[in-house]
Amino acid sequence: MHRPTPIDEARHIRPRPNQLPRPIYVRMSDVPAGYSIGAHSHDWCQLIYASEGTMKVTTEAGIWIVPPQRAVWVPPHLEHAVSHATFTRARHIYIDRDAPVDLPDRCMVLDVSPLLRELIRAATEIPVEYDENGAEGRMMQVLLDQLRAPDQENLHLPAPKDFRLGKICDALLANPADDRTLDDWSQICGASSRTLARLFLRETGMPFRDWRQKLRLLYALERLANDRPVTEIALDLGYETPSAFIAMFRKVTGRTPGSYFR
């Protein structure tokens, strides 16, 4: 498999525009491991596609992990931060907010079909000021037609707003292997375990145990996408054996860790 030459700083082909010259504008970026962009927003919609590498997108609503060959949809005026654990070859598709796109007004990870992948590749090769009424404009319209919401959003971890839950979530994000129960956390957060459990369900839509399992799953997916060994991931997440981790992964995704990205 081709491995990109390591780089020390981001390389961008085409600048960030102050305004869109056409309804769709495409930028290309190669960014190094550890590169991040702090919270910011755009006046337009954005689709970020990674042909290589993995991205993490963070908003007030939670975290999205974007593995290779997936894309993340970011609506206009939504503050978001982006980080890259490894070298990433990204394509940024800026789309006029009035363009006919059938996607909701919230962040989500999209599947990228072979057709959409080739349309994105072709879009990087046409002039910035393409003929909207010609073949290039029609191709861009087909690209928009291929943007579809997924049946399930498995790559999103919702973020609670309650400050007591924030303490728990920040600790788990720093150490997903942390196995403390809500009884343990109640001593730290100043609320009973029953109150914390009720808040978790209300603010994230899932019980605490499921939220923590989802966090561990996303942690695992990010590292699997970057070719980390299953044994290493299992131990990092606090599992006693790789088989216990594989059993959890298969129960949640229906696939083994080794086959997920094939």
Automatic annotation (TrEMBL):
Gene Ontology molecular functions: DNA-binding transcription factor activity; sequence-specific DNA binding
SMART domains: HTH_ARAC
Domain (HTH araC/xylS-type) ranges: 166-262
Transmembrane residue ranges: none
Keywords carried by this UniProt record: Activator, DNA-binding, Repressor, Transcription, Transcription regulation
The UniProt record lists the keyword Cell membrane: no
Alphabetized PROSITE patterns for the sequence: HTH_ARAC_FAMILY_1 (PS00041), HTH_ARAC_FAMILY_2 (PS01124)
Gene3D superfamilies: Homeodomain-like, Jelly Rolls
InterPro entries xrefs: AraC-bd (IPR003313), Homeodomain-like_sf (IPR009057), HTH_AraC (IPR018060), HTH_AraC-typ_CS (IPR018062), RmlC-like_jellyroll (IPR014710), RmlC_Cupin_sf (IPR011051), Tscrpt_reg_AraC-type_HTH (IPR020449)
Protein name, entry field: AraC family transcriptional regulator
Species annotation: Thalassospira profundimaris
